[in-house]
């Protein structure tokens, strides 16, 4: 059985509901949003498509501005009321992109992330959970959600690990451009 490896040409990034009015209630919300912004930058630098969802925007506000600033140009953003991010336009886009691996970041781990991941796995995508880019307003629910998603076949990794695996070599042309982001994560005084 082949081991799934992160290769940019096979990957897309799904940013789920990292919205400004939700963040104050999220465990280490600002730190998580900062790391989601870094993953958006990684995706842009490595030519990986990004898809963003927002849960009932009029209630929970827009996506965090740091993430928006780092998104590749023309990144689609879809409003939803379903908890799963796999609403019809997202499914259609994933089909068109034809990239079997989906890196997932956002919130909340035990609600929208969990349901999105189960739906992605159900459509035969290989999901990579970027663990330091996923959180919840109920920290005690994060572990059980991750265990359930892993049990369904999702692979857990971190933002730095994923970035290095996607580049594969320190001679990658984007290595220097992404190194500052990696250093920021490593040096963050709030790093758990």
Folded structure, characterized:
- The chain has helices at 29-45, 57-60, 65-70, 88-97, 109-122, 142-151, 159-167, 175-187; strands at 11-16, 50-55, 77-80, 101-107, 126-135, 155-157.
- It is α/β, with parallel strands linked by helices.
- The chain has a single domain, classed as Rossmann fold, CATH 3.40.50.850.
- A six-stranded parallel beta sheet has the order 3-2-1-4-5-6.
- The model has no long low-confidence stretch (mean pLDDT 94).
Which properties best describe this structure?
single chain; 192 residues; alpha/beta; Rossmann fold; 8 helices
Q: Helices and strands, in N-to-C order?
A: EHEHHEHEHEHEHH
Compute the CA-based radius of gyration.
Answer: 15 Å
What class do helices, strands and sheet pairing give? Answer: alpha/beta
What CATH calls the topology is Rossmann fold
Name of the CATH homologous superfamily: Isochorismatase-like
Number of strands: 6
Architecture in CATH? 3-Layer(aba) Sandwich
Short précis:
The chain is of the alpha/beta class and 192 residues long. 43% of the residues lie in helices and 19% in strands.
